[in-house]
Amino acid sequence: MTSSLKLPADWSDLDAKAIDTARLLAADAVQKVGNGHPGTAMSLAPAAYLLFQQYLKSNPASPTWAGRDRFVLSAGHSSLTLYIQLFLAGYGLELEDLKALRTWGSRTPGHPEYGHTDGVETTTGPLGQGVGNAVGMAMAARRERGLFDPDTPTGESIFDHHIYAIASDGDLEEGVSNEASSLAATQRLGNLTLIYDQNAISIEDDVDIAFTEDVAGRYEALGWHVQTVDWTNNGTGYTEDVVALQAALDEARSVTDKPSFIALKTVIGWPAPTLRGTGKAHGAALGEEEVAATKEVLGFDPSKTFEVDPAVLEHTRSQAGERGAKLEADWQLAFEQWRTANPDRAALFDRISKRELPEGWDAELPSWDADEKGIATRKASSAVLQSFKNLPEIWGGSADLAESNNTTIEGEPSFLPSDRQTKMWSGGPFGRTLHFGVREHAMGSILNGICLHGGTRPYGGTFLIFSDYMRPPVRLAALMNLPTTYVWTHDSIGLGEDGPTHQPIEQLAALRAIPGLDVIRPADANETAVAWRTLLAQNNRPSGLALTRQNLPVFPRGTEGFAEASEAAKGGYTLIDAEGGEPDVILIATGSEVQLAVKARTQLAAEGIQARVVSMPCMEWFDAQDDAYRESVLPNSVRARVSVEAGVAEGWYRLVGDFGKTVSLDHYGASADQATLFEKFGFTPERVTAAAKESL
Amino acid sequence: MTSSLKLPADWSDLDAKAIDTARLLAADAVQKVGNGHPGTAMSLAPAAYLLFQQYLKSNPASPTWAGRDRFVLSAGHSSLTLYIQLFLAGYGLELEDLKALRTWGSRTPGHPEYGHTDGVETTTGPLGQGVGNAVGMAMAARRERGLFDPDTPTGESIFDHHIYAIASDGDLEEGVSNEASSLAATQRLGNLTLIYDQNAISIEDDVDIAFTEDVAGRYEALGWHVQTVDWTNNGTGYTEDVVALQAALDEARSVTDKPSFIALKTVIGWPAPTLRGTGKAHGAALGEEEVAATKEVLGFDPSKTFEVDPAVLEHTRSQAGERGAKLEADWQLAFEQWRTANPDRAALFDRISKRELPEGWDAELPSWDADEKGIATRKASSAVLQSFKNLPEIWGGSADLAESNNTTIEGEPSFLPSDRQTKMWSGGPFGRTLHFGVREHAMGSILNGICLHGGTRPYGGTFLIFSDYMRPPVRLAALMNLPTTYVWTHDSIGLGEDGPTHQPIEQLAALRAIPGLDVIRPADANETAVAWRTLLAQNNRPSGLALTRQNLPVFPRGTEGFAEASEAAKGGYTLIDAEGGEPDVILIATGSEVQLAVKARTQLAAEGIQARVVSMPCMEWFDAQDDAYRESVLPNSVRARVSVEAGVAEGWYRLVGDFGKTVSLDHYGASADQATLFEKFGFTPERVTAAAKESL
């Protein structure tokens, strides 16, 4: 055991040896594969051991038990910190898994992957995201508590539990973590504790070159409860004071009106004799000599690798297993009592936990009559949201654009501590309308955290252009198969006067490039309703709605040759066919440009050219249809095709083919009213007509 | 004049009237077009007037004079704050321009656009970006000072000037501003002053719902010099105390070892009688009644619009004009003295100011002999950078991945205050190697600020996957025609063990979608050198290099049928042709996949199929070639084509056409060594060969 360890009085030598075993497993695992991040896993072993053996309300035998505390390793590169505790506590990982670190097919990939390894609550690695996820989990915990058990006093409900996260220097340099942390304080998330592993080392070594701020001071200014546990004794020595950390965690848990921040000052790679405290210990194998020397420091046999004393493993697994089993059993008892006392809420809990929508859930979905003047799809989306009033699992808001994104369900309370209510927004801690502030990036990672925590269905709105600010969490939602929904309004130059900084040009193509994300751009109000219905019926994919600021005509569904809007669920469909059903040319359009295709069809008909108009609100849904359906919409025999979308052409060549034309916008927009912009940039029926003739 | 104005004793009634005129022009301009942001422009009028009439070292007649202070309106939605001062000071905007606000072809677009309106130093609107730009400008000012005049004491050089920025609540909610501000303090940017318009209102009204932190406290914790100027008198009344603001600006300028933060507490929309202090004053026209009522408050004729007393305009233009002319004339005198005393530095100044590279600048560019084992393109890029040692305008660094991105020019000092040097990094305030910390987003906006400030050529590195974190400033670089360079390494599943969170799949397609950005993925070391040479020869476009972590073979250039690497400057070229020059099939590949196409060509030849291999390092450069050249590389007659790139297929259909095949990766990666990943995901010569046969 390292001389530096200071453990609680009731811990045994086996606990101390388990901690040192964890350090050496980290060093060995990285050494074996030849790459990875040993240093943090070594120095954080005492903290991680405390959490997984004594602190977290969790049960290794039941890693998805609803009553558990959540643990987020935002510093995902230190995946071994987590894997080794999962191994020691008995979550299903074995020594062979640790030996297979970072190799094909292993349960121990380079970064923790949600859904891949039991006990991993979120996929981390891109820095800062885990902090946002943890904030989202803490918000979800409060909302779920409000749905299922609003009346029990704080701390006494079976739905009260805590979110713990570990963040590195890098996590706290990333802006997304500051965004999320600021909001966490506004929200008074007393159920959240963030441990900051302040080792002052990143890949470029000493952080003095780039990160000299007073991080704890920043968190105080943000409004967190802040403590510092300094294992470095202000640089004079090193004491891994687990007792002090435990006390800080206790204190953090006792503060219920603020999230808690614990700055834990550590020496990375401790106790590696020459590489501790250096950037070299961060992201590379230590080298055989250093690993052996570390083993000698710890009293382990330097000639052995992956050495685990069976007595240690027996101790850690029985300790964590027995503790966890009792925690869950007690909880289950209370849970059953709650179920009996609250049958309606229990039914809601069961339904939401499975992400099942109730029978007839979409009965109130609005529909619109044909209307040439029409309605903006953002407004149609708002009407759809109002129809979900009685589906409390659907909740969300905007990154300070509620009135523009039309994301508010009228009459529903804001999700806000009572003392944060304003003239415009009333609400309470269990409210429904989210206010993210001007923080698109944190919004994305918070939505992920909400989905990871439980079965609710969160949505978040901003302008489509600012999807660029939130791409990292959108990608992670897709990677994790989370059903987040993005309400991206102001989806083209049609937003008008705000100009090129606000007009999305390349965003649709760039978003469609993300595997596993559905990008949906409805052509009218009724397609918007179908879009919401279709995306909510999915459980395992994120969806982004691209909605207009400006009014769009509502097509006369089921008459005058127009197809029913329900066809939009197939992603692409014949909105209005060529006279006679044998098109000379196919016009494929999305969103606000579908109306141009419809008008061009009439113009072409006047010249004796028969055009089919295909509305393609979602390429991903269309691609998922069978060959026969796709062939029926886009018959291979019709090579004359035109795509119409006010964005870059990239992504359309696949559908229009060698003889097709794209009516697209491959440069930036300008500041003017929308009618002028469409005209000036060539989004007119005439240009579509001309392109169709060129294609023939 | 509003009773609340407290002006310096030597200001006249005309100054007071000018300020009120500015407020009403803002209200009128938004009212006329029917949309826009009047409120902040009204309440910030006194502060903006102080800056443009009395404070900034600037000359309306000479808006790009090198010695000027820079002004950044990070709160770009309040473009009128800037436009109206440019009008009053005489930068060329006239009343007609203000009347044309937010209309087609005007010089007053919705958000300020760099290169479009004289006096606009950067394009802003996407919140937070201006803060990063300002930090970049302040860094550039110091670097340029070090290049041209390193020995003059601080404050006495003609290259000493100041950067001022105005930020809104929304700017400071965005994570990018925190990233940039943290780095600004580490860098001790004493030449930077940020005025925070703390009006506590954003689009969703009172920021209490989302932004309750102690912002000034946060900036203190970041390490800034912080002052508060409270015009609201702690809520007890309203005094627009310009004297106090001026004193705070003086104090800020006197602090040279820290950037300065001035929290200016204002009431948005002041003095509009009913809408001031509300979200309604932020982003919509006030309405005719409210505008008229405001005019009455200010003693203006409510029946008139765009009223500017000729005496006011005469006063403001002569005051700003005379002051500016004198400032510049004095500077020019000193500048000429400096030129005479420093002829070499003056020559360097002239060259860099024009972004001209010296004759023979690329003479030391490395080249590599054929080598099957090869070298990673990130390492080749490093060798190229070393050859730029004597081109001091080329400078840059990494977002904490220097050793991975290979972005360091050996032996060059870090750009660091002396007291921030570490064991690993020595340097000084005029150094060359940048350390951004784990802050990709701020890195992007800082690179923009550096380019906006002067003629240096900055680069910044991170992993390609984290281009997602920095998309907003990359887009803005393209929109502003700034020649930033991004060194994006670890460009595919070839990075191996870090797994799907780190493996770019869709990033190449998503970046290629950005209009005006060149995305360059070299196939070997020699293409990497040509890529750098080509991108540096461009002055008006950002470029992103996608470079490998893993070794790539160096092709035998000029022998065995392989083309010279210099052909890569055309974006796409025949690397090795079909035997006889009449290909049956064309294999188009980029980066690490070109070697697969070369091997497939041999396999196909063994079966009697003649394949041409086209290396396509940069689609944008290829598209810029003339038709004849493109036809010579990809003859229309050859329809059998295969693209090979370890990323999504989107973007390739245009080149491979209806009969082509894409060898692509349309799902996420995995954690394993790179050889296994290429094999498991089908990036093998055999798959390319099979695709070629299918295409025939």
Explain what this protein looks like in three dimensions:
Two copies of one chain form a homodimer. By secondary structure, chain A is α/β, with parallel strands linked by helices. Chain A has three domains: about 5-325, Thiamin diphosphate (ThDP)-binding fold, Pyr/PP domains (Rossmann fold, 3-Layer(aba) Sandwich); about 370-550, Rossmann fold; about 570-695, 3-Layer(aba) Sandwich (Rossmann fold), CATH 3.40.50.920. The first copy, chain A, is about 40% helix and about 15% strand. In chain A, strands 14-11-15-16-18-17 form a six-stranded parallel sheet, sandwiched between helices. In chain A, strand 5 (about 200) and strand 6 form a beta hairpin. In chain A, helix 1 (about 15-35) crosses helix 13. The longest helix of chain A has about 30 residues, at about 310-340. The first copy, chain A, is elongated, with a radius of gyration of 28 Å. The mean pLDDT of chain A is about 95.
Describe the secondary structure blueprint for this structure.
Two copies of one chain form a homodimer.
Chain A: E1 5-6, H1 13-33, H2 39-43, H3 45-55, E2 70-73, H4 79-89, H5 95-99, H6 129-148, E3 163-168, H7 169-173, H8 175-186, E4 192-198, E5 201-202, E6 205-206, H9 215-222, E7 225-230, E8 240-241, H10 242-254, E9 260-265, H11 280-283, H12 288-297, H13 310-341, H14 343-353, E10 371-376, H15 377-386, E11 394-398, H16 402-405, E12 414-415, E13 427-428, E14 433-435, H17 440-453, E15 457-463, H18 471-480, E16 485-489, H19 507-512, E17 518-520, H20 525-536, E18 543-546, E19 551-554, E20 573-576, E21 585-589, H21 594-606, E22 611-615, H22 619-623, H23 627-633, E23 641-644, H24 653-656, E24 661-663, H25 674-680, H26 685-695
Parallel strand pairs in A: 1-8, 2-3, 3-4, 4-9, 7-9, 11-14, 11-15, 12-13, 15-16, 16-18, 17-18, 21-22, 21-23, 23-24
Antiparallel strand pairs in A: 5-6, 10-19, 20-22
Helix pairs in contact in A: 1-4, 1-12, 1-13, 3-4, 6-8, 6-17, 8-17, 13-14, 15-20, 17-18, 21-26
